[in-house]
Amino acid sequence: MNIRKKYGVILFLILFLILLFTSCANISTTGFHAGQTTDLKVHYIDVGQGDSIFIQKDGETMLIDAGDNESGKVVVDYLKKNHVSKIDYLIGTHPHSDHIGGLDTVIENFDIGKVMMPKVTHTSKTFEDVLLALKKKDLKLILPKAGDTYGLGDAKWKILAPNGEEYDNFNNYSIVIQLLYKNNSFLFTGDAESQSEKEILQANKKNSLISDVLKIGHHGSSTSTTDEFLQAIQPKVAVISLGKENSYGHPHKEILEKLKKNQVTIFRTDLNGTIIATSDGEQITFEIEKKQEVNKENGETLYIGNKNTKVLHTKNCNQLPAKQNQIYFKNKEQAFKQGYRLHEACQP
Ligand SMILES: [Zn+2]
Ligand SMILES: [Zn+2]
């Protein structure tokens, strides 16, 4: 072996070792596994009356709230089903139990990166449980600062609120986050009410607030989603996180009317179950868990079509197409226009 060849072999060996070690390092730090896409995924988990939103990008994860105490297990099971082992960013928007109730269970069950909660304490057992769970794992809190930005894979998220130091209403301490990926934007509002919305409008250039998807503040209560705020956000889609027949009368009628008037598509966890939005940076697609039931408010019945066979079924038909082939129609005419024909067995 001449000297040149020998050096070549050694050089190749070194290069190989470098590649080997760097690829190992990647696997262990990001938890990246085969088949994972680079799309941004936002899961609005159905936790009944409360909020819990799980976000994934390039193998990095973020959880905003975890519903009430009983929902902790629901959230943990959902994340485990999705092969999650680590939460890089855990956010407790504000210390109300329908948001931070399940956080202690989440903290106990996963590796946790950074934890963010607003600078306010609450004298409830729920709040103490969260602090205890953090202490047990030696996790420190980071405080939200309006204007700060963080990364999630190659997506970015920005803190929009709280902007003030002290509020009478706990809801206004809510951490409000705008998530940006290429041309798509999502807004997560916790229970922020009109006062916080006003401060967000004052602190930001109006155009910078425009978002495709708005998680409606405070479960659709009329104390949030002011006209001015909605006009600045200009959402195409609204997601309302709430429980069926809740005692607060959420969502309030005024809010639904306002959204309809502005031609915003509405998804609700009480009707749709868990809602998953997938963004490739240009387009956002939505998947819903449950078939929407009859909507009493405007008397809509739902029909389910098979995208492949173009057959239309009632929602109760026992021969419904596989979930990935289903398409929903509000009325038969809409389906006929797209070339669908009726299924004889269920007589839609
Ligand atoms: Zn709430
Ligand atoms: Zn609240």
From TrEMBL:
Gene Ontology terms for molecular function: DNA binding; methyltransferase activity; zinc ion binding
InterPro entries: Ada-like_dom_sf (IPR035451), Ada_DNA_repair_Zn-bd (IPR004026), ComA-like_MBL (IPR035681), Competence_DNA_uptake (IPR052159), Metallo-B-lactamas (IPR001279), RibonucZ/Hydroxyglut_hydro (IPR036866)
Pfam family name, one: Ada_Zn_binding
Gene3D superfamilies: DNA Methylphosphotriester Repair Domain (3.40.10.10), Ribonuclease Z/Hydroxyacylglutathione hydrolase-like (3.60.15.10)
Limits of the Metallo-beta-lactamase domain: 49-244
SUPFAM superfamilies xrefs: Ada DNA repair protein, N-terminal domain (N-Ada 10), Metallo-hydrolase/oxidoreductase
Signal peptide (residue range): none
One of the GO BP terms on file: DNA repair
Keywords per UniProt: Activator
UniProt xrefs under CDD domains: ComA-like_MBL-fold
Protein name (Swiss-Prot/TrEMBL): Competence protein ComEC
Organism: Garciella nitratireducens DSM 15102
